[in-house]
Amino acid sequence: MRLVALLALLLASCAGQLETMRPATGGQPAIRATVERPEGTGPFPVAILLHGSGGPQENTKTWSSMLRGRGYLVITPDQFGPRGIRDIYTTGRYNQSLFERIEDTFALLSLLGQRSDVRSDAIFLIGFSHGGRLAAAMLDEAIRHRYVAAGLTLPAGAVGVYSDCNNLPSHLTGPVLLIHGEADDWTPLSRCQAALSRVRVAPVPPDLLAIPGAHHGFDEVRAVGLITLRDAVNSASPTGRGATISYSPAATRQAQQATLAFVEALR
Q1: What is the pTM of this model?
Q2: Helix, strand, coil distribution of the chain in percent, nearest 5
Q3: Would you state the pLDDT for residue 167?
Q4: Sign, CA torsion 163/178/245/223
Q5: CB-CB contact of 255 with 219 (8 Å)
Q6: Alpha-carbon distance 87 to 16, whole Å?
Q7: How many CA atoms lie within 13 Å of 48's alpha carbon, on the beta-carbon side?
Q8: Are 232 and 90 in contact (CB under 8 A)?
Q9: Are strands 44-50 and 157-161 parallel, antiparallel or unpaired?
Q10: For residue 177, how many C-alpha atoms fall within 13 Å in the half-sphere facing its CB?
Q11: Residues 6+ apart with CB under 8 A from 92
């Protein structure tokens, strides 16, 4: 029985635990996240995985496993559940939700800054779809003053995986890596290519990895084949609705390897 209990404890540790890092208070939603610790005592570099417009999905599991195995404390917040949101891709609340998620991410960064097992100088934001848009937004020069006022260190870098680049900040405070599939019909690659030409100030120029043949959601293991989301609000579609997603193991490996190289060079 002791062996069974020990095994259960180890499995729970590997899977991570959902923590309420801040309870709902003063009209503000709770901050909840799955926290996965690497081996060792820390302090650790941190990878915050920011979900897309459909809320937390299975895709983050392989990302968190890879990063935790390389010594990162992995934080995967649920930024929809505490606000009573199921998804935003059927409602098109992209901009409103972005502002709400910026506030939630500031609160999360403040909480992480209080932990002794966190390297505050090595916090990376890795976002998927709408989460990638959020990751880049957190490096907008226009909100640097908020970090200063709160006594927070700026994130060390941001990665946007098949994110919408329409609102990529033109003045960035840190390195950004954008990873996109060339077959993406929901957040087209062309938007990121155009956005990069508008970036005027950044410590280093943002980088763009284009993956041939990859669709939106190429790391979502449940999207076997070509899946059409008919209710998805999509400004890139002639009808304003509908988008495709499709899992690609090869594209996932390429994206993860590029992300790992990016964060390892900065930590």
Answers
A1: 0.93
A2: 35, 25, 40
A3: 85
A4: negative
A5: yes
A6: 23
A7: 31
A8: yes
A9: unpaired
A10: 21
A11: 233
